[in-house]
Amino acid sequence: MVMGVLVLLSGCARMSTMRTGVPPPLQQVEQHLQQGDIAAARQQIDTFLQQSPSTRSYLQVLALLSENRQHPLVVEYAQRALKDSRLRLNSLEEARLWQIQGDAHAFLNRYEQAARCYDEALRRAPNDPVVLNNYAYSLAEANTRLDEAEAMVNRALAQDAGNPIYLDTLGWIYYRQGRYAQAVQVLEQAVQDAPQEPELRYHLGMAYWRRGRLPEAQVELRKAANLWRIQRGEPYREALEALKQVEKGIQASPSEGRRQRIDL
Description:
Strand content: under 5%
Structural class: mainly alpha
Number of helices: 14
Helix content: over 70%
Oligomer: single chain
Radius of gyration: 19 Å
Distance between the termini: 19 Å
Shape: globular
Order of helices and strands: HHHHHHHHHHHHHH
């Protein structure tokens, strides 16, 4: 699972859906985004950054855009931050902005662009656990370079062994590799530590399904769908589609939950 911008801004190293307070100057931006008025939101953001040109201001903007799923704008404003000479960025700050761009590309299924951004981040911060985790998860989602992804997330876990987000990434890599028993073991630990994360429960449900443990798969997939709806206000389509099959007693087929390999 990807470690999000909100986590980085809040300093939390475990939960990815943690909500931080929107600064007053950006509250109107959020209203514009929710109303679909991107032009007005962009104008308000530009004014805010002109008046408060700091790395933290950019991260607040990126967190707000990411939470509102404006991923193309995340890429745009992360690029602006990297080019903003007023910021005097250090290597770690540059790495973070490249990583945030990579995350946005990955959300848009632009895995090749994401990989290039993560590579830039790792050049600046080769041992950063968030970059390593998010890059590894992107590779797992693209179903490619899985051995490399496994090595990356293990390097992240070496720095924070109990992090459920990193454990989820490792479990999902095991799933992609067809190592379903190991996936279940790791994902159970991740869900125990972060029970309110719908994506973790979806991954565990899929792993249970692969192991033929249909009752447990049904429980996890239903919880994933419910949490997603409560937190995001929309259906979790992948979880609901899998749940329909599980409720019918259908065993997972070799192609179920698998994604075509994307060569990067």
